[in-house]
Amino acid sequence: MVDPALHGQLRLVLNLLDTRVGSLLIGGRLARFGTLKATQRDEFLRRWVQHPVPMLRSGAAVFRKLLSFIAYSDADEPADALVRTRLSGIGYNPTPNVATANVTKITAFDPGPAERIAVDVLVIGSGAGGGSIARDLSAAGREVLVIEAGGLYTEETFPTKERDAYERLYLDSGFTATADAHIAILAGGTVGGGTTVNWMTAIPIPEPVREEWEGEHGVTGASGREFAGDLDAVLKEIGAKDSQNVPFKDEAIIRGAEKLGWSSERIQMNRAECSDCGTCPFGCKVGSKQSSLRLHLAQAAANGARVLPDCKAERLVFENGAATGAITTLGTRAGTPRTLEIVAKTVVVSGGALRTPVLLQRSGLTHPAIGKNLRLHPVSLVAGVFDEPVEMWRGTMQAAKSSRFIDPDEERNGYIIESAPGHPGLLALGIPWTARAEHERLMKLGRNIAPFLAIVKDDAGGTVTASRAGFAEINYRTTPRDERGLRHALRSMSRIAEAAGASEIIAAGSPPMSWRRSEGTEALEVYLRRLHRFDFAPNRGTVFSAHQMGTARMGSDARDHVCDPWGRVRSTARPRAGDANAGLIKNLYIADGSLFPTALGVNPMVTILAVAKRVSRAIIADTRA
């Protein structure tokens, strides 16, 4: 599941910890880590997480996140007998939902012993883009096969505990990160992709971004009526409606924003009747979430489309300048891998912004923009500690937002503020670790923490490249303008938390910055001024990402856009002049967030679905004959 190169790095650090010289280098102690007493280990680890050498600090970040998550994430068979004792100590005792009787009607396709099969349309990836494409093309009479590297889970088989959910439903078991371990990245890795595990937040692309796409990138019609109609149709299809129940953490956003005179509103969500159980990240057992699994893929299956899980596309196949299918590995998760060739008249890649460019690179495509222009919507975090119980893991995941600062200014990028719900494992991974006692203190406060996040519309250009073993290597740096947006957001979220009545405010970083109400208003102003200097250097400021965009972006200029404005893939950055189809690979399309020319500044699901509609129409028009 994870790049072998990362295993090698892990072993290297473990071996260093087991030598006197290595321990001196890492933690300032000329003694093997295993021989140290508890207080000495605590001092050792405090030095390590603040190490002046970025590479060693990154190593500390990997261990900190991994082990903190394991220590507080429940599973059906926890390896650590103390996990449930810790969870009981913070008041975490959710009751699993009973699966709906109306289970999603999707079964895994069985190709039998065949080594080669043929279909009209091969869709690689089953998330928002892939599911929408499969539904539309199967409705148009095409024979569609959707393949997915992850497993197939439905309401009957969704896990009920946090660690099991990350292991089964998330990319890299939930431990996807940038190469320097600075930014933790959450992405779906199951049938339905991110729509299976997201928090159901349904926000269309802002009007200024649509204008930017058309005016600066030549995405024809992006600011016009047809695309606006696609967005409206998507919202109707997924049943988007305002959140009905507003839990404490979201009500704090509304209450704090109103006191400050800032805008706030309820979030639209793609849901039917909902029990507000708080287990959206584990898959929706009650069947409320209108995910691609339950909606688009189920409709595609009803049209005759087939879904093949545990099937990883290794490379695309081309003949005479046209895509003709893919070579895949079937059965890796089941422990019985074998090669399966899939021949197709049309190939649609919908692997997401982290996997789509890697597949294109492994397939020999050389357009210089493949894997470039990665956007991650970097997220900064603030924890407001309240006297009342919050229980962020219960109720609607995200019910409210403030768009007060969505428009950029001369100094910073724009952002929106939402709540950051999480179960204890994710909370333990996300909060700062500066010492054992302080981490335990914060975790014991977990029941009273209202977490806030800010989604920043970044303009940094990260890259995704295929590693030697074929995995995605993600390199990304925030720009000074991005970081000014992140710092501005920290101050705004802190002000909301204070206005809502928080007794303590913590800006997540290493080390964190904090303020307690007992310190008074003068200390609050000092704290807010200190946030102007918040350090977002690698593994200093805590940064997350749940949105990945832009690594095969669409646009009119062949030099820096991998795809044309309708998702057709280019083979070259210098096509022959005068030929509209010159440089395009016949029968090959992309339909996922990698098409986005820029970041959105809002949650991307609705926009991915709308863009997929554009691509579907292009495919149907191109292949009508």
Q: Would you identify the CATH H-level superfamily of the largest domain?
A: FAD/NAD(P)-binding domain
Q: Count of DSSP helices?
A: 18
Write down the domain tally: 3
CATH architecture descriptor of the largest domain: 3-Layer(bba) Sandwich
- Helix content range of the residues, please? 25-40%
> Uncertain segments of ≥5 residues (pLDDT<50)?
none
Return the structural class: alpha+beta
Distance between the termini: 41 Å
Global morphology? globular
Strand content: 15-25%
Mean pLDDT over all positions: 94
CATH class of the largest domain: Alpha Beta
The CATH topology name of the largest domain reads FAD/NAD(P)-binding domain
Radius of gyration: 24 Å
Largest sheet: 8 strands, mixed
Question: Got a strand count?
Answer: 22
Word description of this protein:
The structure is a single chain. By secondary structure, the chain is an alpha+beta fold. The chain has 3 domains: 86 residues, no CATH class; 269 residues, 3-Layer(bba) Sandwich (FAD/NAD(P)-binding domain); 167 residues, no CATH class. It is built from 18 helices and 22 strands. The strands form 5 sheets. Strands 1, 2, 8, 9, 10, 11, 21 and 22 form an 8-stranded mixed beta sheet that branches. A 7-stranded antiparallel beta sheet has the order 6-13-14-15-12-18-19, with helices on one face. The protein has a 3-stranded mixed beta sheet with strand order 3-4-20, with no helix packed on it. α6 runs parallel beside α18. The longest helix is centred in the C-terminal third of the chain and has 20 residues. The chain is globular, with a radius of gyration of 24 Å. The two termini are 41 Å apart. The mean pLDDT is 94.
